[in-house]
Amino acid sequence: MKLEPSQYVQNRACKYCKRKGVLRPGRVACSRCESRIRRGWPINRLAQGNVRNPRQPIAQPGYKRTDPPPGDHRNSDEPYLREQLAYLRKANHDLECRISELVEAIGRQQEMATEIASAIVAAEPYPRVPIAIPSKPTGRPVTAAVVLSDWHIGEVIEENEVEGFGKYNFAIAQARIFRILDSFIKWIHVQRTGYVIDELAVITEGDFISGDIHDELIATNEFPVPVQTAKAGLLLGESISRLAAHFNKVIVYAVGADNHSRLQRKPRFKQRYESGLSYLVNHIARCYLEKHENVTFQAATGIKMVASIAGWKFLCEHGDTVKSWMGIPYYGLERSRAREAVKRMGTSSDFNYYVIGHWHVPAIISGNIIVNGSLSGTSEFDHAAGRHARPAQVAFLVSRSHGVFNYVPFSD
Asked: Quick check: 48 and 65 in contact, CB under 8 A?
């Protein structure tokens, strides 16, 4: 609204241009200075111009309204480039420091693994059990496969907190896995009445320790994380040693990129296997089995690996990257399988079966998605989410002609 000259404050000057008689009531800057400030003028330029006529624009030779105001640092490229260079140098330095920290952490873990390996005494193999050959074998030899994952060594599950649906600690874990493996070996002997089975594929898919990724685990774990790692590695080695006595050849496909063994609270994907404690679990098991000539290891260097079993390809991963909410993500697993199939189509990394753990409920979905169970069974989180499953590890046979058959979840 336009004011009469008598309505302007006469005894006060504008804060910036120092003119009197141009202030509206209640303002500290005149209309001209306010307009120039909104247009981005620097403060030291506000006092310049024709003070007698506030409506007369500031005009200088070669100056356009679209240009930065005179004296603006952007009017010269040199200060701007100098500031940009300083910023980029700092950002580059921060990235170099981060890379150096990651390399140092991996080197420290590898050095730790070397020291641990030198301290582990390799176990003597169990006496080899003769393999029974059926009098009338059906077809060509088949390969047995067992999936080991989600042992959560160190976790404690109190029976009264899950209404009696489960109980767990390290003593229970030891007894439970040995009973499951004994049942698996008896099942193999029964299958050998009709098939020649002299080869075993062991797929390990991580989460062998409880870890400390949640505050509640830090408060309730039975052992500190280093002790969990040592006990899980030795228990895994002993389990494979007992199996190796019943087969001429054992191949261990080790996938170690999981969630419970990570050392950071936030999940990461670069160097995920080497930066987690499942790397040490598998390393301890490998050192424990050093004297077992019929056992070989194939370890994934990334999050996933394709294992070739009896001529069929199995895409193996832990499974924590599949999104879900308060339940088993059946549709999420099918979407994950579909994305992987499209991504690998026409490459040497294609697959026939998709094998995962993490979800604690053994299942076979759509004929070629194999989900492993857990050794711990129903935890407090499972109980809160309405999930329940008996402790189980899955096994199956693989025929060169027909693929997977005789899928069995061995529960305790």
From this structure: no
Pair (182, 319) in one structural domain: yes
Domain boundary among 32, 47, 70: 70
Same domain, 225 and 307: yes
Residues 48 and 141 in one domain: no
* Residue 2 belongs to some domain of the structure: yes
Q: Which helix (H) or strand (E) holds 173?
A: helix 170-191
- Tell me, what amino acid is at 20? K
Quick: pLDDT tens for 50-82: 444 444 444 444 444 444 555 444 445 566 677
Residues 285 and 137 in one domain: yes
Taking the model in full, what pTM does it have?
0.72
Closest C-alpha among 355, 108, 393 to residue 236: 393
Residue partners of 250: CB distance under 8 A and separation at least 6: 199, 200, 201, 202, 240, 243, 244, 292, 294, 295, 296
* Domain ranges, residue 66: 1-70
Verify that 60 and 126 share a domain, yes or no: no
pLDDT of residue 60: 47
Note whether 341 and 217 are same-domain residues.
yes
Structure-token pair, residue 386: 């309405």
> Total domain count for the chain?
2
Last-in-domain residue among 70, 103, 129: 70
Please indicate, yes or no, if residue 192 is contained in any of the structural domains.
yes
Which helix or strand (DSSP H or E) is residue 80 part of? helix 77-119
Please state, in angstroms and rounded to a whole number, the distance separating the CA atoms of residues 410 and 408: 6
The predicted structure's pLDDT at residue 110: 73
Residue ranges in the chain modelled with pLDDT below 50:
50-67, 71-75
**Strand order from edge to edge, sheet including 392-399:** 295-299, 249-254, 199-204, 143-148, 392-399, 403-411
DSSP 289-356: TTT-TTEEEEE-SSS-EEEEETTEEEEE---TTS--SSS--HHHHHHHHHHHHHHHTTSTT--SEEEE
Q: Within this chain, do residues 267 and 171 fall inside the same structural domain, yes or no?
A: yes
Alpha-carbon distance of 378 to 159, in angstroms, equals: 10
Residue 139: other Cβ atoms inside 10 A: 12
Q: What is the pLDDT of residues 81-100, one digit of tens each?
A: 777 788 888 888 888 888 88
Listed in sequence order, the residues at least 6 apart from 94 whose beta carbon sits closer than 8 Å to its beta carbon are none
Same domain, 340 and 238: yes
